[in-house]
Amino acid sequence: MADTPIARTASRSSRSGGPRGRRALTAYLFLAPFLILFLVFVVAPALWGIWISLHSWNPLLPIHRFIGLDNYIQLFTPGSLTSGDFWLSMGATAIFTVLSVPFLVVIPLFVAVLLNQKLRGGTVFRAIFFAPYVLGVAVIGVVWRYLLDPQNGVINNLLDGVGITQNFPWTVDVPWAWISLVGVTVWWISGFNMVIILAGLKGINAELYEAAAIDGAGAIRKFWSVTLPGLRPVMAFVTTTTILSSANMFGQSYLLTKGAPGHATRTAIMYIADEGLSQNQMGAASAMSYVLFAVLAIISIINFRLQSRTSGE
């Protein structure tokens, strides 16, 4: 190759890695802190949890016997020590998820569509609707347990004041316990989903609404033909994260109902925590965690496939 300025520049760039190599190195340097934290606090505990699940692991004992897949086999063996209670708690988790997710998706969508209009005081209403989400689950649980107390709760007293003298067992009997858990969760979480959906609405091209109006479409037609198709990626994200958060519900049930009546509202996370931290059966609890993870992973994949197929149509 001739010794030209361009050739010399190319030679120096190749020796030093070139601008592309430097940009890649810079990107990896910025990613390094997150990657280190991810490896230390996510990947390493996950691998350690798998190792624990293969043992009869009691943290109070010095020796942890290796038992292979026995903890997993026990979960799928009817009549075993863990199978019945675990699948009962999985059933409670499924009930809560099925009951709560539609409300946690539809109500925020409806509110976001309303607040996306040019309303006076819209910012104030957004703040009010979002405000409960900034509270921790401990605060939510303590406040609502006081409000929903069957004997001296504020809500039963208010109902009594308007002539409804029945003391509703909000936290000690079904279906009232499920109504309480779902209602409190919807009140608490809806604001977060509303903000995400509202951001998605801002990203829809206004010209699409103008074109729909020219074609004579009304508000309902615009919603079905413009709003929902434009929100498909956002709704896929909201639906998936809502399913995952509902399936991992712990604090509301622990603080409001304590799993009552009996174990009817004891969710999978509650049972796993009790088995691992109270009963010191860390191996069995780890196996339960990975079974729950596998179920949620399958549900998430199915949900994204359904969303993408609908979007393709």
Give structural notes:
The chain is mainly α. It has one domain: MetI-like fold (Orthogonal Bundle), CATH 1.10.3720. Helix content is 73%, strand content 1%. It has 14 helices and 2 strands. It has helices at 5-16, 18-53, 70-75, 83-115, 122-130, 137-147, 154-161, 176-202, 206-214, 219-230, 232-247, 251-256, 268-278, 282-312; strands spanning 55-56, 65-66. It has a two-stranded antiparallel ribbon. Strand 1 (55-56) and strand 2 (65-66) form a beta hairpin. The radius of gyration is 26 Å and the shape is globular. The N and C termini lie far apart (55 Å).
- The parts where pLDDT drops under 50 for at least 5 residues are none
Q: Helix and strand succession?
A: HHEEHHHHHHHHHHHH
Known CATH architecture: Orthogonal Bundle
Helix run count:
14
Structural domain tally = 1
CATH topology: MetI-like fold
Numbering strands along the chain, what is their spatial order in the largest sheet? 1-2
CATH superfamily: MetI-like
Mean pLDDT figure: 88
Largest sheet: 2 strands, antiparallel
Topology, number of strands:
2
What is the share of helical residues?
over 70%
Specify Rg, calculated over alpha carbons.
Answer: 26 Å
General form: globular
Q: What is the class in the CATH system?
A: Mainly Alpha
Terminus-to-terminus distance: 55 Å
- Counting helices, strands and paired strands, the structural category is mainly alpha
Strand content: under 5%
